[in-house]
Design brief:
- This protein is α+β, with helices and mostly antiparallel strands.
- The chain is 31% helix and 31% strand.
- The chain is built from 8 helices and 12 strands.
- The chain has a 9-stranded mixed sheet with strand order 3-2-1-10-9-5-6-7-8. Strands 4-11-12 form a 3-stranded antiparallel sheet.
- A hairpin with a 2-residue loop joins strand 1 and strand 2.
- It is globular and about 50 Å long.
- The two termini are 42 Å apart.
């Protein structure tokens, strides 16, 4: 296994509730009120739709509001990884990931382990450059039992809901989370901050029309059949855990450029506080350049 390279679940495609559109010569993220299932092929006009998208869309009258899924792992944190993430908006490179206590940060000296004060208290997080970022891997259909589709989100409602649901479902199923018949479900809410405009987020529930008791019985039967066939869920979880831990950053630089465009766009001038107006008009510098300057300043102060 190559050290420094995070080994992530094999991907078959993507799940999104938004897209990147071009407005006034700029590519900007745009929210949607439905799921879209795509392949991993990105064309000039967007991501190539996966065949499953048409199948689901036809069954739901044109808009995909739920997707039948199952999970790969029994540990919730392996299915859904969420942390505070900072990307360099100029290069698209991942720079820092943390959990509010500790972080791994790319610096001129390599990857460093440092305290993580969370975005509100971190000087590098100014302008919304650092925010919660989650990735959920799920299986759709039975064609590839170890292949998955990834749903990425920086939405607080999705991150909080998915985290809670996975923990609860694991508990009530008696540690049979991968055996439960589940579905991704799109939910909406409005807040004072949204001024009445619906905010859509993602939830995980047992499949529609299936009582919880029936889902638990199905999970027990599937778990028994898997054990009889020699399927080792604990070994699969451990392999995934070691793979994720093999690299400092889960997203490769190639993936990170796409993630940055969709989830960490450069804020518009009116979204940036006036206290940073001088910085906005100064020549653009990458985050790695600013980190190097800060390291140099700290070195000089010690001389």
């Amino acid at each position: 296994m190559l050290k420094g390279l995070a080994i992530t679940p094999p991907l078959l495609g993507r799940i999104s509730i938004g897209k990147v559109v071009e407005k006034n010569g700029k590519r900007l993220p745009e929210k949607d009120d439905q799921f879209t299932v795509t392949s991993q092929v990105q064309l000039k006009d967007g991501w190539l739709v996966h065949p499953l998208d048409e199948e689901l869309r036809s069954a739901q009258g044109g808009k995909i509001r739920s997707i039948p899924i199952r999970l790969l792992f029994n540990a919730p944190e392996l299915n859904f990884r969420a942390e505070y993430s900072l990307f360099d908006r100029l290069t698209g490179r991942p720079v820092c990931v943390g959990n509010g206590e500790t972080c791994k940060r790319r610096s001129p000296n390599g990857i460093e382990s440092l305290p993580c004060p969370s975005p509100d208290a971190c000087p590098l997080a100014q302008g919304g450059a650092c925010k919660p970022y989650g990735r959920l891997n799920v299986a759709i259909g039975d064609d590839d039992p170890l292949g998955s589709f990834v749903f990425r989100t920086t939405g607080f409602n999705s991150i909080r809901t998915l985290t809670a649901r996975l923990e609860y479902l694991k508990a009530v199923s008696g540690n049979r989370l991968p055996c439960l018949p589940l579905e991704l479900r799109l939910r909406g809410k409005s807040t004072r901050q949204s001024r009445g405009t619906p905010i859509f987020y993602v939830d995980i529930t047992v499949r529609s029309g299936t009582p919880l008791e029936s889902a638990l019985n199905q999970a027990r039967e599937i778990n028994t059949a898997r054990q009889a066939s020699g399927f080792d869920q604990d070994a699969l979880d451990e392999a995934a855990r070691l793979g994720f831990a093999n690299g400092a950053f889960e997203d490769s630089e190639e993936e990170a450029a796409v993630v940055t465009e969709e989830f960490f766009p450069t804020p518009a001038p009116e979204e940036t506080s006036s206290s940073h107006s001088a910085q906005r008009h100064s020549p653009a510098q990458s985050l790695s350049t600013r980190l190097q300057a800060r390291a140099n300043a700290q070195t000089q102060s010690l001389e």
